[in-house]
Amino acid sequence: MEGLAGAALAIALVGLGLWTLIVRRNLIWKLLGLNVGASGAVLFLVSLAHRPGARPPIAGLGPGPSADPLPHALVLTAIVIDFATLALALVYVIFLTESRRTQDVRRLEREEGEWPERLGGSR
Amino acid sequence: MRALAAVALALLLGLLGLGVSGIFPRPGVPGGEEVAEAWGAKNVVATIVLGVRLWDTLFEILVYAMTIAGVKLGLRRLRWEEPLPPVAETPLLRRSADLLLGPAAVFALYVASSGHLGPGGGFPAGAILGTALLLLALAKGVERLSAELREPTLEWAEYGSIVVILALAGALLLLGRRGTAYFIAANLLIAVEVAIGAWVVLHRFALSRGEV
Amino acid sequence: MGTILFAALALALAVFALTQRRLLWGVIGVGAHSLALAGMYLFLAAPDVALTQAAVGFGLVTFIYLLALRRTGKLTVVAAETHPLLHQDGERITGLEWEILSQFARRLHRDLEVLWVPRAEIPRLLRAGEADVGAGGFLARYGEGLLLSRPILATRLATVRLGPGPVGAVAGDQGQDHLPPTGRTYEDHQELGGALARGEVGGAVTDLLHLHQWTLHGDVAPTETADHGATAFRFALAPGETDLLEALNELLAELEASGELAELVRRYVG
Predict the structure, then answer these.
(1) Closest by Cα among A113, A89, A87, A120 to A99
(2) With 90 as the cut, is the pLDDT of residue A88 above it?
(3) Exposed, middle or buried, C199 (CB in 10 Å: 0-12/13-18/19+)?
(4) Please, what are the domains in chain A?
(5) Which of A22, A118, C81, C134 has the most CB atoms less than 10 A away?
(6) Largest Cα–Cα separation, chain C
(7) DSSP label of C86
(8) Residue B123's closest CA among A80, A39, C47?
(9) What is the ipTM of this complex?
């Protein structure tokens, strides 16, 4: 029951995030959509690990089935790595905004901008 | 274009739905707790992260460190040239931030060092410590805090903790020693690494803009 | 039960965040959404993941988004200096349009940057994406292909005559549409006023605001006035910036409804 609700929410979040990623034209909006989609993926794994009536995967919490610990372990590091890669992506967005003065992908694709000297000369 | 995107999305979501529908058999959960007991821990997740699948964790840490280095290199060229506005002196806020850092650090330490017994571990502890430093920076101003923290020392601590983690993991893999002390040491080192990385990212972003 | 509650909360926050128009609200919504997700993980028997998600998703991620927004958000305004609307007063810039633009920038969570340019340059700069907003007593001409905001201040366009000689206008201004073929163009209203005072031109096509300024300073005393009809000062935006236009119009409508715009007009224009 709980696992199913989690999986349904995860699918909805992935859809919502990917839709934002595709439709929005601003780069930071795209990253926000990616963020929500990634959290949906995390939730999907966690809710797959859940069993009806499961308890946390810690020894000594009593009888009964425990949740599958492997997806938890995979997801734990992924959340932290998400933060680091997001920071790197934002640095690139800052670079683009500094040099081309826009965050709109359509305009970024259309225009050939000058690459400023202080960002490392010619491209 | 939008129609194509919608079709692709619907297909993907359908695939995900198929995964949970129960058509495909799901593997039974192996008894993780005996494994955890054998490693000298109670938290099965911590046993997997630091024991059974140590290689994954090591490379995740490397990816994290490399990403932080990328942020550092990238923002080095984007310093904010204009003079920084002075941070307003608010003694009350500063004092209370100083007072709050202690408990926050102790909590992070607790989360890291009890990671093998209950929920917690190096990654959340590092994130908690990073958030605490961020709140401190909000109260005191980034420049003052960064002067107090001494960036080069931090850099050494960051890379040093990576090296120690790698050495520890190598020793573990070679010698096959396992036990509580190993978990505590590894969790603490990971916490230090993650917290310093988070602080470096926040500090660089704040520097490139000139304020928090 | 708790799972359903947190699931509904997380979904509602995600939808709220991703359907916003202002980035700031989107970032805050995503932060709250990840906190709700952390609660959800607790009910899914994953306390480790919940702890990590709460610490990373709510604290660190939200904060670097905010810092990146501060860094990248610069609202560039190109304007012709126009005395009571948008002008330099010593070190700082002030005027009626400045008040509106700084409120707009604050609302967008962006810094404001004003570049002074001749009136005729504004459409080109906006179309090239060098700037976001054109201002400074902007009267639109036919065929410029720019987006225009709601009117800020109504005015009228007129041809004034002081004496014999050709008629002058500001290059690129709406007044150029009413200029006879023998007319001369000047870069901005200051030069046009100077030419009028020197007697270089015998008349000018201009708006009532600038005419009022000139008569106030005693530079000109019109003898004959021909009205060309009502027009209004507006902000100009680059074509395709419909989101920005909507936000600006929203702000102007709010200012109008609250009477703040009338108050500002009284303070700056009189």
Answers:
(1) A113
(2) yes
(3) exposed
(4) 2-119 (1.10.287.3510)
(5) C134
(6) 90
(7) B
(8) A80
(9) 0.86
